[in-house]
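User: Predict structure, ligand zinc ion.
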Amino acid sequence: MPDPRMPDFRLRCPPCGRSESADSRSSRCPECDGSWLIEYLFPAAESPARAPGIPQIPRLPGLFRYLPMLPVRDVAAIVSLGEGGTPLLRAARLGARLGVGSLTLKDEARNPTGSFKDRMLAVGIARARELSHHTVAVQSSGNVGASAAAYAAAAGLSAKIFVPRTVPQGKLVQIAMYGADLVRVDHPSPAFIFELLLWASQELGWYIVSTTARYNPFVLEGAKTIVYELAEQTSFVLPDWLIAPVGGGGNLGLLWRALLELRALGLVQRLPRLAGVQAAGCAPFVAAVREGRSVQQAGTQAWPQIDTVAGAIADDLVFDAHVALPAIRDSGGTAVAVPDQETLEMQRALAADEGLFVEPASAVALAGLRRLRQEGTIEEGASVCCLLTGNGLKDVATAAASLPDVPLVAPTRAAIAARVRAR
Ligand SMILES: [Zn+2]
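Assistant: Predicted complex:
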């Protein structure tokens, strides 16, 4: 007999209305090529079958305790490295400096491979096992690649990771250590490399576990668990604003979907407004929001030249504009671009004021908050939560470039005394 708490879901294509069962192997609608939306058939809030709170199975590991809200049905397919369960930290000093009433940081750098992508790939690899795939593949600026490689290793699957030439050394080494087949393509554009990956995957039968909903509607669902945790950590009183770094846009869309789910379940009344932040040197999403571009335009107009230290979000296309643009619009949110200099300042402030060493792509959220305060978009005294998406140790070279050199000191008391008094 099936466990009544196992998720029941179906795939639906919003443009044409077609739907398929959870067993479907198609990554997109075969009728109109639309992206699938995953619909969960969980019991309504007033149903006597549902316990209070977010539907979950506490005995399952990592984020799989939220299994009823995730597109995985076979518990035997699950591989967990202890992802999720990240702390929500109060940043009182930084919050006061930025003029907000309360600033909290959801520290996703604590995930097993050092980035929030582990939430997605845990789901993606479970889905790959459910569908009996042996080889998974992604295009990545580093974080997705590391997550895919680690979870594939733990699951005994092969991983093909395509990266652009600009990937930092730390991320390359991390992916290689997990034993993945690392394909370093001599090109800077994620959109271009994605085309090569699509071709190779079709030729060789690899299962794409990209965090782009357009190419795999299941993987991104893992991002929803950030919001579930946030809701539980705030006793279901969510902040006024939720600020997230944006690459292809999918994470923003899934954060919003999770918020809508919580409201539909009757667990929260007031939802936060979403703000998406990109680096000024690669900001196609911000351009799309601020210039009112259509989903079609945003998903096809590539950013001409990538120039930023925030490589983890340097997507030159808004791959998931179909979920990201509605998330901003429907939440009454906004998007903002920040220059690298401000990102690096906030990276140092997070480390020196709050004890958190994050990668530049995470620090953009704080730089974005500062800009939105200056613009007056976020009011003084508002409550704000920023997502910190990746660990600073993944790209030490960028951080080192903004710090002074550390000179050697002679091994004598006199030299030590001169050195420490000089400080
Ligand atoms: Zn369709």
